[in-house]
Amino acid sequence: MDTLREQFLERLTRELFHKKGEGFVLKGGTAIRALFGEQRLTKVIDLDFTNPRRTADSLHHSIHRAIEIAARGLPIRNLHTSEPGKAESSPRWKVNFEDTEGRPHHVEIEVSRDPARAVPGAVTQIPFVPHAAKGIARYWVDIYDRSALIASKLAALLGRSVPRDVYDMDLLNDAANPPSTALINWAIDRADLAGRDPITILWEHLEELSWARFQTELLDTLTPANAERVDETEWTAMKLRVGEYAEDLLRLASS
Question: Residue range 76-85: average pLDDT?
């Protein structure tokens, strides 16, 4: 685990949610991190930002200020931020810095400003418990509820073949409280399958996710302790669990 990167991410997330009602909502890997702690690490803070009262200028100001404050007091040098244009609908900030020994570290903040692409689910507040940042108490973040996060991850599973989607859905899996039919259909629409059968696409994507891809694409988002729990047999079982759960959701929407 990259402890310095994690400290920076936790401090940065705190600053983004320091003032209630700023318009940010956590999604993606950062939302999974907020819910499940060190079971899921990430290099990207993924946010929706759809408050109609907030402008691109205010968004850029908030991000710039949060990066500056998050870096204070950390053993960081040569901090450099690549900033996106203010006209972009999904701007991405790329933050690079070095530790005191010159090792490079990289963090990204991706923000969707398009209300039409926001997850159509309920937003709730939960405590975010820092694990790496020292001297920081838990703080509160806005996050989509679990049903909405499941629907968002279902859309990802249908739209691409990425190992972290399987791992995340396995954490989120909640057979007792599935997302609504409307949310499931939103996920299918978001995946843009051009009329193809979503269940077939789901299993094709899962089949592409080999053990080698887990090792090369997912290991750096897990702590060593969590990585040790997943061997090739468990990865195969995880894909099967996720596939069966996702298929049940898709059949629920079509019934």
Answer: 96
> Token pair of 152, please?
């968002």
The whole-model pTM stands at 0.91
Amino acid occupying residue 121: G
Kindly report the number of other CB atoms within 10 A of residue 44's CB atom.
17
Task: Please tell me the distance from the alpha carbon of residue 73 to that of residue 105, in angstroms, as a whole number.
Answer: 16
Question: Sorting pLDDT into bands at 50, 70 and 90, what band is 74?
Answer: very high
Are residues 113 and 137 in contact, defined by beta-carbon separation less than 8 angstroms? no
The full length of the chain comes to 255
Q: How far apart are the first and last CA of the chain?
A: 44
Return the DSSP state at 173.
-
Q: Give CA–CA dist 31/144, Å, rounded.
A: 8
> What percent of the chain shows pLDDT beyond 90?
74
